[in-house]
Amino acid sequence: MIQCRLAFECPKKWADLSLTPDKNIKFCEECNSEVYWVSNPLEISAYIKESKCIAFESNKTLMLGQPDGVLTECYVLVKSQHLSAKQLFMLKSELYPQLSYIEVKNLFELKDVKIETGSLSRSKQVSELLTSFGISSQLISE
Is the pTM of this model over 0.70? Predict the structure, then answer.
């Protein structure tokens, strides 16, 4: 899934744009410019530098416009490991107060766990907290 901030969000639809020889490029008659279909977030940076308009799908919604930046998904991955009772108690206290101790134990018991945090700064905080508990984790930003 692509998540991108748009400096300008175009009201046009991809289907309304004129065809070109390249199926991934269409032409907008209104602003007299090419619009590039983006299928992965890595492509967006080049279009930002060149001030090109793009089209992409985000959350099953077709978006068109001039990109301003890529939004990334950030989370903390806790790899499968044996956790002590103290570590499980700390997880419950700090990250999962709404769950019972048994639920936290079942959640983490010898399996990988993805902790979704919503932001890079929060992911860093959670990763540092886990490290302070002696729990091995990895900060992931996609």
Answer: no
Domain carrying residue 56: 4-70
Over residues 64-122, the pLDDT tens digits come to 998 876 655 678 999 999 999 999 999 999 999 999 999 999 999 889 999 987 666 78
> What is d(CA 37, CA 7) in angstroms, rounded to the nearest whole number?
17
140 burial (CB, 10 Å; 0-12 / 13-18 / 19+) is middle
The domain that holds 90 is classified in CATH as 3.30.1390
CA-CA distances (angstroms) from residue 112 to 24, 79, 87, 88? Answer: 38, 4, 16, 15
Q: In the chain, helix, strand, coil percent, each to 5? A: 30, 35, 35
Give the three-class secondary structure for 69: strand
Q: Are residues 49 and 34 in the same domain?
A: yes
